[in-house]
Amino acid sequence: MRLNPAVAIGEASGPAAGLAALAELDPGLPGYAAAAAYLHERAGRTNLAADLFAEAARRATNRAEREHLTRRADT
Question: Mind listing the pLDDT tens digit for each residue in 5-60?
Fold first, then answer.
């Protein structure tokens, strides 16, 4: 999966680096919004992260994923 390296970069080098790596990818990729939400949350941008988690929940293809992402959006 192409998103994993961007998240790994965010873990190793900080969320700004992860977001820069993510910006090079297609935003239409499944999981893109969730990965962006996670990295923005780590960067302290909780309102933006919540919006992105909600977007990811709307795009989720199964109930368990949708419920998990909705909970993340509501925290």
Answer: 999 999 999 999 999 999 999 999 999 999 999 999 999 999 999 999 999 999 99
Q: What share of the chain is helix, strand, coil (3-state, %, to 5)?
A: 75, 0, 25
* Residue ranges covered by each domain of the chain: 3-74
Long-range contacts of 13-17 (CB under 8 A, 24+ apart): 15/39, 15/40, 15/42, 15/43, 16/43
What is the DSSP code (8-state) at residue 42?
Answer: H
Q: Which residue reads 């302290």 in tokens?
A: 44
Amino acid in the structure at residue 12: A
**DSSP states along 39-50:** HHHHTT-HHHHH
Q: Cα(70)–Cα(1) distance, rounded to whole angstroms? A: 23
